Amino acid sequence: MSTLNTILDLAAYPIDDQDFRAECRNTLARTGALVLPGFMKPEAVEQVKQEGLEKQHQAYYTAKQHNVYLAESDPAFGEDHPRNQKVTSSKGCITDDVIGEDSPLRIMYNAEAFRDFLGDVLEEELYEYADPLSSINLHYASEGQELGWHFDNSSFATTLLIQKPAGGGVFEYVENMRDADRGEMNYEGVERVLKGEVEVKQLSMEPGALVLFRGRNAIHRVTPTQGDITRMLVVLAYNNQPNVALSETARMTFYGRLTA
């Protein structure tokens, strides 16, 4: 914990305290989102930001059209049907193998105390990815880049904001929009979201905020970045089973390569 104490604000967030863990777990269960402002100390955030700026030229950039279900189009529906309607996601990304061994991100990700905290809050056993690219990703969204409306395939996501843009880059969501386990896709509700007819919620976050989000049934997006300050966001990716690698198709799509 002594090393983590230089990176994380453990006075404000006692991650080994069972009462604090229970509070976090209850908030996540109740709302589907947990935001811990200032979780990473400012000096550690600055170190990660500088690393991100220095390595941004190594990022792989993609602009992808996809439907909100992140699945192949279903020929039973028209292309303008909410099941198949396309939205755009565009971003850059540096992968786990590019993140330095002495980076606060790697120290944090590998720390048993941090992983144990996440696992307790998420009520999951957590394991790193078996491939060399997917465990820690730093995402860049420059002006005009965005994350289109979608549902996650995984049950949870863990992110850390590093740099906030001058404008835009807002995380918006609508909870309980579908029930994936029951196969209830709620096309009518999704169509209303895509048309802007549904009031959305926003997650307010500043650099250093840790966010746990359950996006399997909550439709969500990140609005286009505005201005010349790039939005930088870290995704700390874990599996609930050991020895799982991101598929080769997904790695080629998001990273442009398969190995380090």
Describe this structure in words.
- The protein has a single domain, classed as Jelly Rolls (Sandwich).
- The protein is an alpha+beta fold and 260 residues long.
- The protein has helices at 18-31, 42-55, 104-110, 112-122, 187-194, 248-255, and strands at 33-36, 60-66, 87-94, 136-141, 147-150, 157-163, 167-168, 171-174, 201-203, 210-213, 219-222, 225-226, 231-236.
Based on the model shown, name its key terms.
260 residues; alpha+beta; Jelly Rolls; seven-stranded antiparallel sheet; four-stranded antiparallel sheet; 6 helices; iron; BesD/HalB-like; metal ion binding; ArpA protein
What shape does the CA trace take? globular
**What strand line-up does the widest sheet have?**
1-10-6-13-4-3-2
Question: How many domains comprise the coordinates?
Answer: 1
Structural class from helices and strands?
alpha+beta
List the total number of helices.
Answer: 6
Which fold name is given in CATH as the topology? Jelly Rolls
Question: What is the tally of beta strands?
Answer: 13
Strand content: 15-25%
Under the CATH scheme, which class?
Mainly Beta
Q: Average pLDDT across residues?
A: 96
GO molecular function: metal ion binding; oxidoreductase activity
Domain Fe2OG dioxygenase: 131-242
Protein name: ArpA protein
Organism: Oceanisphaera arctica
